[in-house]
């Protein structure tokens, strides 16, 4: 019985340690991420409410617009297919928002086939290849960036990152950081088992 208890406590301590280290890594990566001048900006998909970007998606689009205005990249690729409860694709909602903000329509490219972060970046990479783009700034919430980095590395996308943190939605942000520790390990294990 004592041996079982000891093994259980050691296992629990290991899980807590792994979680803490992963969480710290996610936070540090998100905070320290800095964009570099690139050929394009990739905005990772997020929920759309009817026809309009959700608050998280809107902040990602605002960051992309800010980087575009500062001359970090000429083109913006907006990602995301049409999900449940959405009248239009995330990419279409994002393009409309950016065009209304002042980006010329020809500089906003839609990637509207994807339903996950991996698919966002896979299809965005295909657009990059078609257009001859060699580098990208990937924009998402801070908690999402480390996993996006792992996927971009796997797909051989030459990328830098820029993250947003939406203070008005602290509960959702905290949940995002906690959830991502599991998602990051899922991505790592998926990469390891693919070899």
Describe this structure in words.
The protein has about 200 residues and is α/β, with parallel strands linked by helices. The chain has one domain (about 35-195): Rossmann fold (3-Layer(aba) Sandwich), CATH 3.40.50.620. The protein has helices at about 1-30, 55-70, 90-100, 115-130, 145-155, 170-195, and strands at about 40-45, 50, 50-55, 75-80, 110, 135-140, 160-165. The strands form two sheets. Strands 5-4-1-6-7 form a five-stranded parallel sheet, sandwiched between helices. Helix 5 (about 145-155) links the parallel strand 6 and strand 7 (about 160-165). The longest helix is centred in the N-terminal third of the chain and has 31 residues, at about 1-30.
Give me a quick take on this structure.
By secondary structure, this protein is α/β, with parallel strands linked by helices. It is 55% helix and 15% strand. The longest helix has 31 residues, at 2-32.
Write the layout of secondary structure elements.
Blueprint: H1 2-32, E1 40-43, E2 48-49, E3 52-53, H2 55-69, E4 75-79, H3 90-101, E5 108-111, H4 117-131, E6 136-141, H5 145-154, E7 159-164, H6 170-193
Parallel strand pairs: 1-4, 1-6, 4-5, 6-7
Antiparallel strand pairs: 2-3
Helix pairs in contact: 1-6, 2-3, 5-6
GO biological process, one term: Gram-negative-bacterium-type cell wall biogenesis
Protein name: DUF218 domain-containing protein
InterPro entries: Cell_Envelope_Assoc, DUF218, Rossmann-like_a/b/a_fold
